[in-house]
Amino acid sequence: MPARRKAAAIAAAGVAPLALTALTVLPAQPAAAHGSMTDPVSRVSACFQEGPESPESAACKAAVAASGTQAFYDWNGVNIADAAGKSRQIIPDGKLCSAGNDKYKGLDLPRADWPSSKLSAGNHTFRYKGTAPHRGSFALYVTKASYDPTKPLKWSDLGEKPFVEVKDPKMENGDYVFDGKVPARSGRHLIYSIWQRSDSPEAFYTCSDVVFGKDTGGSGSAPAPAASAPSDEEIAAGAEKSSVEHHGHGDSDAKTGAKATEAAPAADAEKASGEAGVADAPGNEPEVNGGAEKPATATGDNLAETGGDSTTSYIAMGGAAALAVGAAAMFATTRRRAAGRHGR
Q1: Among residues 151, 175, 134, which one has the least CA distance to residue 38?
Q2: Are 305 and 28 in contact, with CB atoms under 8 Å apart?
């Protein structure tokens, strides 16, 4: 066999199996974790900061007992892969803080002693740790005056409209930073956040316990503990036990960082802070699992692909198939040319 024909045959034989292997085994890459509210401090962030192995507060001890330690090492991954703006329809009452994900069920425990952050009415700067940044919008809700922290959190405990809505806020030192006007409240309440990505149907959720004025929570006369956000050092120390990416940019490379960005044009602040949460809803009995359109998708099950969409794996598979066909065509062309030379 001439050297040129032999080389072409070897190339085709080597490339085609590789392409077919990629076609058959190429998996869709799962999304990395993306962050959590740190001002005011979310429940999952506060319990991670206390230490999943030996939490200090009674509420975090109970949450770890219900969910296990891994949920809190994965503090930045409370999400639904295919929320697509339908959070109210797919997250059941009583499971808002876990986003219907059984892994984080400890976050749904109705208690009046969750570690909390001080908050007051008026302008406030919110911070959301973005360990894997994405384009998208944040919506923040505050509980109504009738809120009872000892009962499961329901959608009817929140206002119909968010008091803060912001799209693509700026990022500073790994935090999304945006301002909002907090409605007046008294005592213990909760801030619920939804971060809906615009580059995928995926959304992330947090519950932050807050106190306006005097704390009405805790047991007896003792106030509930203050919540603390995890430091960068604590996040780095816990990352080795986490099952999700840290300090990344939404891909599989943990070295890609979260860079500072400018804020997108903000919506009308006064319009976004519409006081829909002032009126009390009749009754406040818990309706666990009520009103959900369908079960929420658990983290880790067919997650939205980070930095892409559901077509990404099919594009890759199509490329692999094209590579295999091209290799076969090259081999056939080489054979025809060789046959022509022998015929002459």
Answers
A1: 175
A2: yes
* Cα–Cα distances in angstroms (integers) from residue 87 to residues 35, 93, 296, 322, in the given order: 18, 11, 9, 39
Is the backbone peptide bond immediately before 40 cis, with ω within 30 degrees of 0? yes
DSSP 260-304: -BPPPPPP-HHHHT--TTSSPPS-----TTTT-SSPPPPTTSSPP
Nearest to 162 by CA among 143, 148, 176: 143
The interaxial angle of helices 3-25 and 312-343, nearest 10 deg, is: 160
Longest dimension (CA), the chain: 103
Contact 108, 97 (CB under 8 A): yes
Distances (CA, A) of 23 to 19, 232, 302, 315: 6, 40, 19, 10
Letter for the amino acid at 204? F
Picking from 155, 135, 139, the residue whose alpha carbon sits closest to that of residue 147 is 155
Q: Give residue-wise pLDDT tens across range 191-230.
A: 999 999 998 999 999 999 999 998 876 555 567 899 999 9
Task: Look up residue 94 and give its DSSP letter.
Answer: T
Question: For 34-69, b where at least 16 C-beta lie within 10 A, e where not — what string?
Answer: bbbbbbbbbbbbbbbbbbbeebebbbbebbbebbeb
- 269 touches 180 (CB < 8 A): yes
Phi, psi for 55 (deg, rounded to 5) = -65, 155
Please give the Cα distance from 230 to 236 (Å, whole number).
10
Report d(CA 49, CA 293) in Å as an integer: 34
3-state SS assignment for residue 79: strand
Tens-digit pLDDT profile for residues 303-315: 333 344 433 343 4
pTM of the model: 0.66
